[in-house]
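Hey, quick one: can you model this chain's 3D structure?
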Amino acid sequence: MKYLFRNDYSFGAHPKVMDAVCAVNLEGNWGYGDDQYTARAKDRIREVCGCPDAMVEFLIGGTQTNVVACSFLLKPWEAAICPDSGHLNGHEVGAFEATGHKILTVPATPEGKITPDMLPPLLELHQDPHLTKPGLVYISNSTENGAVYTKAELTALSEFCHKNGLLLFADGARLGAALTSDANDLTLPEFAHLVDAFYIGGTKNGAMFGEALVITRPELTDGFFRMKKRMGAVMEKGWIQGVTFLTLFEDDLYFKMARQGNEMAARLQNGLKAKGWTLWVESPTNQVFAVIPNQVKPKVDEVCDCEVWCPYDESHTVIRFVTCFHTTQADVDGLLAALPNL
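Sure thing. Here's the predicted structure for all 342 residues.
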């Protein structure tokens, strides 16, 4: 048996999501999100975020949401500040920069975070009117390295951004994993009120596809639907996303699925350490990073699909295992039994 731990979107959707979509499949609904399910889903998200005046819009995937939202929030001469490991910079083929906006990178912490003390030199440099003006700080929660921002960290970054005229945008592709992590001390409403815009990732947490973009400040939202349409991001059958996100936020399903992924990742991480494996970082979410000798990689490939993350040195490689809502204890224990001791 070969185990699948390559990412958290290898499986379709939670059965409750599939059942909900099938139940209204031939009902007939207005398109472009002008339907009752989308309206109810937006209201529900405003409720769980504690942001009654927020704009909520549904998009298809993470890259699309990052590009549409960040380019909408910035003036044409403004740039986004991003950790060098950030998805916007490192994994989206210049999609954001293709809109005409520049990415200004700063070296991330080993956890993949930005801290306020990293930013003043960059802001000082870009006072020159011949350079792009920083207008937005992009972060991910959880980060690309599996870490989460604490309340103190996010508060400090939020206060710095607002003091210096910067918007704070959070990539929430794995927001469920972050908010259900044992390392997290933020509620969803607290998180929402510390950022200017973020999205609730569905693709990587039990939805067939879809992200819910939340812009918490109404004064920033004028014309967003037109921008969304202009960039080809409006889905004709928008009611599917409405039904999906209504289901995700019934009976705590969204957080239950994320918690399942985290718990299985912790079991895998502890099991690897017990087998003598070295971790690249200690991750409190659903991504597990391990350092292995290069000669061991073929043995891993025989029993598991995972991802090569980065070189470690000439003779070692960092690989990544990812768990999800569909990962079971039997999957983890079976993989651990099949992997070699190191």
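One thing worth noting: The CA atoms of residues 189 and 300 lie 41 Å apart.
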